[in-house]
Amino acid sequence: MHVAIVSPSLLEKHARESPLLSRAIQVLDEDEEVQELLRLANIFAVHRLRYNDHGPTHAKIAAGAALEIFNLLLEANIMPTCLKDGTCTDVEEAKLIVLLGAYLHDIGNSVHRDRHEYTGALMAKDILDRILPKILPEKGRYSRRIHYNIRQEVMHAIYCTETDVECLTVEAGSVKIGDGLDMAEGRARVPYRLGKVDIHAVSALSIKRVEISKGIDRPVRITVHMDEWAGIFQVEKVLLPKILKSGICNYIELVAISRGKEVLTYPPCT
């Protein structure tokens, strides 16, 4: 069984498999405004508020994880919402929505942490209007309409990364959960070095590896490996609420393992 480890290299794998995603990642990586907003997101979140990483590395980790989840749903014959509703024309465009939503989801932190999902969704509009023609070159009025549709789907995905907001699409649900999977120890090292010693930092430092694989009873299985019980805080208080509001929770299995022993399963064993 294939097991994908949540890390920046996961996005590279998806880029190799899709010329459209590869082009989109190149556009995002080379866009001065996008990269500066992600840098500023880290200044606000990490250096001023002592939160975990919210910059370029987190954007890529979240995007790779979101795409991995989305691919497993596709393999289980779960139709993308944008295809069902006609807001995109093929699966590659659906994957593009997932990529852009995950990559840009934290740009609102460059303004303030409070309501950054709402702010980021609004900020993304002008960025998407500018970069989508580079990713999907226009070929008449029909293409422009698809640009508008994709733009709004991406804005929805960004807004829905807020924990308590219910996702209305499979694409947004993949982004929401993908965001929550960047929880391994590396993400907390900077705020910890800066002096933040609280349950969020200690819990994140306890998580050693997060894996995504095909589920046993459901399409997607998420496995969180911890070396201390403190890691369960991140799973129960950060990741699980995102899964429950993702709109795709019925497709997800979650297992937390501490020193070889399962300490939490979702859905609960009956």
SSE order and pairing:
Elements: E1 3-5, H1 9-17, H2 19-30, H3 32-48, H4 56-75, H5 81-85, H6 91-104, H7 116-135, H8 141-159, H9 170-180, H10 189-193, H11 199-206, E2 207-214, E3 220-226, H12 232-244, E4 252-258, E5 261-266
Parallel strand pairs: 3-4
Antiparallel strand pairs: 1-2, 2-3, 4-5
Derived structural class = alpha+beta
- Quickly count the helices: 12
* Average pLDDT rating: 90
The strand order across the widest sheet is 1-2-3-4-5
What's the number of structural domains? 1
Unreliably modeled segments? none
Largest sheet: 5 strands, mixed
- Ends apart, CA distance between termini: 25 Å
Which range best describes the helical content: under 10%, 10-25%, 25-40%, 40-55%, 55-70% or over 70%? 55-70%
Quote the beta fraction: 5-15%
Give the overall silhouette.
Answer: globular
Q: What is the structure about, briefly put?
A:
With 270 residues, the protein is an alpha+beta fold.
Give your account of this protein's structure.
There is one protein chain. By secondary structure, the protein is an alpha+beta fold. It has 12 helices and 5 strands. The mean pLDDT is 90.
